[in-house]
Amino acid sequence: MKRAAILWREHRLLLLAFLATSALALFFAARFAFYVVYWNAPEHRNQPIETWMTIGYIARSYDLPREALADALGVGPLGTGRRPTVEQLARDRGMSPEEFRAEIERAITRLREGGPVR
Q1: Is the dihedral of CA 40, 46, 49, 55 positive or negative?
Q2: Where are the alpha helices (DSSP H) in 1-118?
Q3: CA atoms within 13 A on the CB side of 73
Q4: pLDDT exceeds cutoff 90 at 82
Q5: How confident is the model at residue 117 (pLDDT cuts 50, 70, 90)?
Q6: Phi and psi at residue 78, to the nearest 5°
Q7: Contacts of 65 (CB under 8 A, 6+ apart)
Q8: Which residues, 6 or more positions from 50, have their beta carbon under 8 angstroms from its beta carbon?
């Protein structure tokens, strides 16, 4: 405990920087562990497509490249920040979510078979 008091007194900025980077490293390690556990669980693979899902989530669930699925659906480039759901994409196309869901399932089938995506 005496060493910690000395560090706090003589190297406060260095100690604070160390604690901040340790907390950041712990955050990213926990996030990585959650990600690995979540996607390795069998119940998260090949999930039935629901309206709240994004193209990225569906691609991860079906083990497909996100960009390939987006291209097959004609969604366009998926940048950072914008993550539209199946419901939003269907609404933008003037389709019902069920119709768009069927289109997604056809695109998944084509991508898995290695055939033409469109």
Answers
A1: positive
A2: 2-10, 12-40, 55-61, 66-73, 86-93, 97-113
A3: 30
A4: no
A5: low
A6: -95, 100
A7: 59
A8: 86
Separation of alpha carbons 39 and 63, rounded Å: 10
* Torsional sign, CA 60, 66, 70, 73: negative
Q: What is the mean pLDDT of residues 82-107?
A: 92
Half-sphere exposure of 96 (CA within 13 A, CB side): 3
pLDDT of residue 80: 66
Q: What is the mean pLDDT of residues 34-52?
A: 91
Q: Tokens 């899902």 identify what position?
A: 53
Q: Which two tokens stand for residue 59?
A: 């691609």
List the one residue out of 45, 35, 52 whose CA is nearest residue 108: 45
Tell me the average pLDDT across 104-116.
Answer: 87
The residue written with tokens 């100690």 in the block is 15
- Round to whole Å and give the CA distance between 99 and 14: 58
Q: How is residue 18 written in tokens?
A: 């160390």
d(CA 26, CA 9): 25
Q: What would the two tokens of residue 72 be?
A: 């097959």
